[in-house]
Amino acid sequence: MKLNKYTLTISILASLVFAGCASDKAKQKQPQTKANQAEAVQFIHPVSDQPSYSLSLPGELKPYEEVVIYPKVKGFVKKIFADRGSKVKKGQLLAILEAPEISQHYLSARADENKFYEDYLYSLQAYERLKKAATRAGAVAAIELDKARSKFRSDSAAYAAVKATTGASAQLQQYLRIMAPFDGTVIHKNISAGALVGDHAPLFSIAQTNRLRLTVAIPEKHVQAVGKDMKVSFTVSDHPDQLFFSVLSRKSDLLQQDSRSVTAEFDVLNAQHILNGGEYAQVKLTLKRPHATLWVPVSSIVIAQSGIFIVKIENNKSKRISVTAGTRNGELQEVFGPVKETDQILVKGTEELADGTEVKLKS
């Protein structure tokens, strides 16, 4: 029994060795694998184009002008002529303050002005008379004429100083009358009659709502496509079924570092007050580059850990070209980098082809 078991084991091992040798011989007889042959690829040339494309971005409607009105002087609120929601015109009286000390100071300044004016007139007349008399030889001593001239000039300067003080006091009187700086709507009223107000107490907030500013943050990659007369359309949640239109009015040329964007403003006429201001809007922009750029199929772009690149065929060998992706228009992708229209670019980019890999172009 033991002899038969060993004999069977040796027979099985011999069979396995023979089969392995036969397999090696079969492999040696097989032709080269496809991996050792040049891979056939399809290429395309980049297209130079300057298409218009649409971009949807959030925006914000703001009052064209908005201001918080503070009192220039401290005083008591005597009377109020406007309330929250009131439509006001430029120069319209909103409230009157009273400050007795300011009124008394103004009256005192006016009295001083009248006194110094009389002194100025007397000095002027005296100087004119002496000057006329001095035309006759020996009638007036030269020193007397100089004294009169000096007195006249001194009184003239004193009168001018007092007049300026009176003007400043009169201006303080005007500050007691709170006026609307422009046509608009009173957004906030923070005072009541009889209240004492000072430098840090806001009285009213006024916003101009018959004209609004639509502000939109344009991402850095699209800034160069913002045209001078760019038109936009937008919707707001209050009127989802209504489309509003505007044209670019102004934009900042400085890129905001925190958002990497440029703020564009569009003036919106709102004479019927359909829009309230302060609303968020969904804005659709039509953009166009100032000059033609190169476009390749989206499938040609490879996004890998090493970066974004396309594969270029040069002398039947692959070469990775680092690019920056711009905008997308359908199945085409805008690219920036060392790429020319005459380059042969793989239609289907792949990370598997290393630089210098030999390829065969499909006809």
TrEMBL record:
GO terms for molecular function: efflux transmembrane transporter activity. It comes from Pedobacter cryoconitis. The lineage of its organism: Bacteria, Pseudomonadati, Bacteroidota, Sphingobacteriia, Sphingobacteriales. InterPro entries: Beta-barrel_RND_2, BSH_CzcB-like, RND_pump_MFP, YknX-like_C. Residues 1-19 form the signal peptide. Residues 295-360 form the YknX-like C-terminal permuted SH3-like domain. Belongs to the membrane fusion protein (MFP) (TC 8.A.1) family. This is RND family efflux transporter MFP subunit. Keywords: Signal.
